[in-house]
Amino acid sequence: MPDVMIGDTPPSRAAAVPRGTGVRPVFRFLRAVREVALTCVAFLGLMCILALILGFVFKASFVVFRTGSMEPEFPVGALSLTVQVKAEDLAPGDVVSVRREGSSVLITHRVVSVTPPESDGGNPSLILKGDANSSQDPLPYEVAAAQKALVTVPVVGSWVMTARGPAFIGGATLALAALVLWAYWPKRQPRSPGH
To answer: What is the pLDDT of residues 170-180, one digit of tens each?
Structure first.
């Protein structure tokens, strides 16, 4: 006859799984969200560093089109990457950003003509015109250099202008602080068996 064990019960399934090894799906999801958010923040930080390097080495900058004077090729809200170019190296058809002497207003229009300086030590004279304008700009621009547009992306400029607003900056600061706090919040250690 086979031996019969009396009074023994099979161990429960809960007892077979060590405490602390089961991770709820919601915790896994939140952990994944945290990792993705941290990766995005790191990527944005890297892009800012690269932009600073480009600006320092190549005198690059970004220009946002706020008016429709260059439509349809450059719509309102478009963002252009520009680099500094000597005025004498510009050619008709180039799109440039210039400021008149003593003015803080940035004008981004297309070059119609480039006239060499009339005297030694002078600056070339640029005639500009907006693509959507019926006439050329009223006065020439006498400048030593200008920011030449290289690459233009539509819509992104509107996002940049929104991101420069105080409401967005305040919200982004709070969100970043919460993310960092979440990432470095002390994790609860699992209780060892028998305690």
So the answer is: 766 777 677 67
